[in-house]
Structures are given as C-alpha cells and as structure tokens.
Design a protein that fits this description.
288 residues, D-Maltodextrin-Binding Protein, domain 2, six-stranded mixed beta sheet, single chain, alpha/beta, 2 domains, five-stranded mixed beta sheet
Length: 288
Amino acid sequence: MTPHELHSPTQSARDACYDQTIRVGAVSYLNSRPLIVRLFDRLPEGRVTLGAPSALAESLLAGELDVALIPSIEFARHPELQIASNACVACAGPVRSVMVYGRVPPERVRTLGLDEGSRTSAALSRIILAERYGVYPDLIDFPLDAELADCPADAVVVIGDRGLIPAAELLRFVWDLGAEWHRWQKLPFVFAFWAAREGVANGKLAAVLNRARDEGVGRLPAIAVGAARRLPLAQRELLDYLRRSLRFRLGPGERKGLRQFYRLAAKHGLAPEGRETCVDIDHLATDR
C-alpha cells in the first residue's frame, strides 16, 4: 500500500472512529485494498500490520493481533474466533486472482503446490479435486517469492496479486476457483473476512470496519491507479477486476455459500464439523 493511500485521520474522521488501541492485521493484496485503504482514518489509535492471509491468521491465533482479515477456512478451524464485521472478500463467479494451474489433467494430479499465502484456496482446490475426481494429492509448498516454473507440482494454487498475472507456460487446465465454485454450487464464495479474538468483536468495531469498507469501495478508481504502478496490468483492467469480480459484503448469499464450504471442508477432514452454524452475524450492529 502506498503512502498516499493510507494517511493520518482528519478531524471529521476522528469524530466517527474507533478510539481504542487495537492491533489489526490487514492483507496486502489488491483484492482486499478496498477494505483497508481507509483503516487509518477509522482506527487512528490502531496499529495496522500488513501481511499474507495465512501469516495474519497465525498472528491472530497467537494473540499478537486483536482483529485480522483471515482466510475463511481458518475461522472454521478455530472456534475461539468470532466474526468481527460483515466486510469480506468474496465473489459470485470468476474471481480472476485465485487460480489453479494444472500441468496434467485433473484426474492425474498427484502433487498440488499450495501458495504460501493461501489457506482457503488450498482447501477449496483439495475439495474440488476430491469431489470431482477422487484425487487426494500430496502437498508441496509454493513460496511467496517463487515463480510458477519453480514449483514442480502437477497443479499449483496461485492467489492474490500474482494470481492476476496469466501463466506463461503451456497448461492442461486452468481453474478460476471462484468460477469453479459458482458453477458447481450456484453460490457466492467467501475467501476472507474480519475475525477477532474472543471479547474483541462488538457492534462498534463492526461498524467501523464496515464504514472503512464502504469508503474504500467508493475509491476504486484511485485504488486501481495505485495498483497499475506496481502490477503489469492496465488501470482499466484492474478497475474492472475490483468492480466486477469482487464482492465486499458478507450478505445472506455469501453466508449461505460459506456454510456449504464449511460442510464440505468438514466432510473432507479440513475443518471440524458444525462450524457452519457459526456464521450468523445478525447479533452484531454491522451497519450502523
């Protein structure tokens, strides 16, 4: 995130901000930029740490953060966490930045490379391979600083900003995981959302995170301009991605998709059973 995107809060913002010291973990990918671009205005007393979703989940669970934008699968795996807001990163069709690149046909995948920043996409790709093809591959790490060519796996999960860049090699299949899920389940898919340690989530924090999201969504053109300076993609393409490929509200459809994902994750031993009952956020004053 560039300095002009995160800045000191104005007085008007301070009047409606969260006035408690809080440690926040925010994802650095473009797909979450609308959720965090206004966080310094809304959390002037907060300490914001940028990182990959997987690393933020670990820091939250270790007590190093109070609230973080984490992979949705990690909420299913850890009942001590609570949903903190209705702001999320989701899609209802092609997401364009969460990909599986296959070098062999899906039914012949024996090794799966997992993006180091991913947890949710790793689980979803394993579910699809198991459900559709009866395939349970061995897992290989795909480091954040590696190129696709560096990973020898039969198929590789690639997420975030590097997932936006088309693969240069000849492939046997390419899956956009958002599109694959929607074609299969006819539901939105939620990749990440704000979660907090027990005792941190409350209506005021939810309202602040949602307000930051709403203000960020209102600044998509400026976010696309900043992204075009560091990614080899045109500004108009990046703006189209932000506007058309992503959803940022954990609404009824997104929660229904999340419940189904959690059921499938439990079926395949990737999360405990019963967590689909824990995505009701109506008890939070999420939009005031």
